[in-house]
Write a structure and sequence with these properties.
The chain has 273 residues and is mainly beta. Helix content is 7%, strand content 37%. Strand 12 (186-200) and strand 13 (203-218) form a beta hairpin. The structure holds copper (II) ion. Copper (II) ion binds next to loops.
């Protein structure tokens, strides 16, 4: 029995961030702190002011529209009001940059305003084919500065790697998206545990050892494709906190810019949470 309990304890992910509760007070007709930066799953709790009636009303206009993501009075009967900014809430009430502005209706004219910013970790691009990182493309086939593309391929642009889904190791819903590669050709998605920027084939190799071949995807008529298999499983990503580098290697036959027949996308770095 003791042995079983030990195994169960090991099965629990050890470093999952616990959801926090952030308290905002309303005394002196101020939301304090006025700006709160939180993580997905955290809760914000507003507390009442025994000397004043306030509201916590999402939006910026000063009057109710019915489209508020949240709205509550705060008074002697409603002494706290809480909102949990989880994935379902964010999906139901999308806001630009995941920033939720709000105000108090009676004290709107006194600038009793606040903001909740939900900071969502994202995959970050690196190793573009514009030469900015100090490594040029193999045959002068750099792409436009700041375009985030890999080295130029036979279509006249460079391929871009991006991602869909979350960086949550436990959720494991991340997919890698390749675009602007050569249409109707196969691509292999690669993972590295270290980063590189080395001229290789028609492009730059961005992922270093130990590397994993993740999945082969046949690209569509636009030169795009997306992984469907588990990144965590195929990449043997050990746990939250692991940093991994991703890139796609695709065929660009016969007319490739440098003549090697294949090229690489830009890279993407993921810090798993
Ligand atoms: Cu108020």
């Amino acid at each position: 029995m003791r042995h079983l309990l030990t195994l169960l304890a090991l099965a629990v992910p050890p470093t999952l961030a616990a959801a926090d509760t952030h308290v905002v007070t309303t005394t002196n007709a101020n939301f304090t702190p006025g700006i709160v930066v939180i993580e997905v799953g955290d809760t914000v709790q507003w507390t009442y002011d025994p000397f004043n009636l306030h509201t916590v009303t999402e939006g910026t206009g000063g009057v109710l529209t019915g489209n508020e993501a949240f709205h509550s009075d705060l008074n002697g009967s409603i002494q706290t009001f809480s909102v949990t900014f989880d994935e379902a809430f964010l999906a139901a009430h999308p806001r630009t940059d995941n920033r939720y502005e709000y105000y108090c209706i009676p004290h709107y004219h006194m600038a009793m305003w606040g903001q909740i910013i939900v900071d969502i970790p994202e995959a970050e691009p690196f190793c573009a084919g514009d030469g900015f990182d100090g490594t040029l493309c193999p045959c002068g086939n750099e792409t436009a500065f700041g375009a985030g593309e890999g080295c130029r391929n036979s279509t006249g642009v460079g391929a871009i790697l991006s991602a869909n889904g979350s960086l949550e190791h436990a959720t494991d819903d991340l997919s890698l998206v390749l675009s602007q590669a050569r249409p109707l050709q196969p691509a292999v998605f690669l993972q590295g545990a270290s980063q590189l920027s080395l001229p290789f084939k028609d492009g730059k190799l961005c992922v270093g050892s130990p590397t994993e071949r993740m999945e082969i995807v046949f690209l569509d008529a636009a030169g795009a494709g997306e992984t469907v298999e588990s990144i965590v499983t195929n990449g043997n990503v050990p746990a939250p906190g692991a940093i991994r580098y991703y890139q796609a290697w695709y065929r660009d036959p016969q007319v490739s810019v440098c003549g090697t027949g294949s090229n690489f996308s830009s890279g993407l770095v993921v810090e798993w949470v």
